[in-house]
Structure of Calreticulin-domain-containing protein:
Amino acid sequence: MTRLNLLMLAALTVLSSNRAMGDEAKPTIKLPAFEPYAVDGAAMWEQFTDSSASRWRRSQAEKKGEEGLRYDGEWEVEELTKLAGIEGDKALVVKSEARHHAISAKLDKTFDPATDGMVFQYEVKLQESLGCGGAYAKLLTTPFAGEFSDATPYTIMFGPDKCGESKIHLIFRHKNPITGEYTEHHLDQPPMPPVDHLSHLYTLVIHPNNTFNMLVDNVEKRTGSLLADFVPPVNPPKEIVDENDKKPEDWVDDAEIPDPKARKPEDWDEDAPLLIPDEEAEKPKGWLEDEPLMVPAPDAEKPADWDDEEDGDWSPPLVPNPKCEDAPGCGPWERPMKRNPEFKGQWSAPLIENPLYKGQWAPRNIPNPAFFEDLELYKLNKIDAVGFELADVASQIAKDVWAPKLASENEVEVATRPKPPPAPKPQMPPVLDMFKARFVEVIDSIHAFYEEFTNEGIISALRNERHGAFGILMLAAGLSWMMWNIVLVFGFVSRIWRETTPRAPGAGAAAAGSGDAAEGSSTGRAAAAATTATKRSAKKSE
């Protein structure tokens, strides 16, 4: 069964300031256009269209107890300027910086939470970083008339606040049915709100079983009981301490007393000292009994401006006696003290159970004359300002209105996010840097040497202090390279000449016969292998 049990301000309460927004990068993505969303049966459904400004009344009342301090902050219904996710989407925007703001709008009809509980839901968007301020809403108690201020009675206060400790307030006012006085009851351990520049949805649901749910962005952040999770508790204790109750004069609350039959032993010496000299102790060997611990400084001199008549007789400052540094001690020796085995201290009778003991006295409890038990706390005071809707409708609104807006804002935030600086070029390790510097020096020296060699001649180039030594090394390296090439060419020519010169007869046989001695040549190794094979064959035939 569908019931009208949703109190709702499903709108944007946007915190901003009158500061310039700066040259914020415009998003390159195409934003979806604003489309009005219809909600049937709501006491108040607000999307801040062009006709909304007339229903909201800006307060200019004076703050309670602060003479001359008024609610003079300005409000405007205008399009968003920071991370707008919907083209043409408007909000109720705070326009004044560091001032007190208050604004209200009456419901189309009074809402009574006693019917089926309630749901209260609205959006908050921080267009500027919030230093100290609130973005909470108050559901104002019936009857509401006049200007809204901190003195206006409210039924529920709900929403984010950042001033010192950041928290999501949940406070309800309850009327004592006996005294008629109202008390504010604060949620114990409230959750923390988000603090970015995106639109966030705050939802409060109060059920007819006295439980509540607090959601942020359609995610549950806190749940609990109106009876158990608020400070101070709504229902007072059934009994209280009787302040007029007095302890009887004959009341005995000493559990133990000294034993009246106990007597001090005859050998008990109360005058025996706790410590006595150790008669077994002996003076350590090497103890310098005649040497003082401090002696006059030997190198001290009387100051030149010292006047004995005005300053008195001068004496050098004292310093530790150097003779005592290696000795076990200096000065008169005294026996060390030890605990006296005969010490017993003051005698007192041992304690025994008190036969007259009645226990620890405490004033009695009496019925609390102010006791009441309200088990239907969800039946809060009727509300005149802001509106209501169905609980399932609240979830649908979050899905149809808030969720697409947040998705679009996230795209804008990504599109306008400052591009990260390019990654720095990888730097060479110190060793590679050193080799690079040396290589550059070598190239520079070669160029300089060549320049002077071309213009001034080889002698001048070699004598130059800057690159002469390097030129000599270069010349020596060049000559060495040339000599090495001459040696290689000479060896190559010699080998060709040997291979092309005809040999004398019998040279091959001699080479074959000397296989073992000629293992360094391929011909000698082949001959040796052939001889070995011949010997093995002959042995097999035998």
Notes: The longest helix spans residues 468-500. Residues 507-541 form one domain.
